[in-house]
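name: query_chain
kind: protein
chains: 1
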Amino acid sequence: MTIIPLPARAARRYGGPVVTEAMAFEDEQDAGVHALATRLVAGDETALEEVYDRWSALVHTYALRALRDSHDAEDVTQQVFVAAWRSRHTLTPSPSALPAWLVGIARHKVADVRAARARDAAKVAAVVSLPSTHDLHLSADQDVAEQLVVRQAVEDLPDPRRTIVFLAFWEERSHAEIAEKVGLPLGTVKSHVRRGLMKLHEQLEGVRHESR
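structure:
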């Protein structure tokens, strides 16, 4: 007999052998998830592989919708399952706990990425000369000094970091566009941008400290 997975409400309304088999099938699935969670907590590496195969798409979809960047979503997905393995002792096995627990870890990893983006954005605002910020607190002489220091710091960066930083902050190219232009993986480009930005931020902070 073909099992028709009716919703629970319909099952209660209609009853009968089809519903009984559907409910038995759901019970079997729940038991399977519970057993899988128990194996994971016990340190069974094959259980981690099964968990990844079953729920990695769920985690990736959540990360992609939250971050709107495929590379970041892939990184988060990998981090979630690494974290799941390392913190498996925190999972209490139950039919519903496993996917919810994975999504909970994903939320924390997404928050980490957003926090890193916010830090980078603050550094960009501090480093890149924007006309709307010039008149806030800086004198004309200090403004010019900062621009010269930042430009020199960029010139001192080794390639390909120098080119990547220039494309990112002066030509305002996206990470994907830069990766295509310089022929490097997207993750490598992001790493160069972040490290270059940290260097420029340090140089700028040094100038501001000396001017106080």
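note: DSSP finds nine helices and no strands in the chain.
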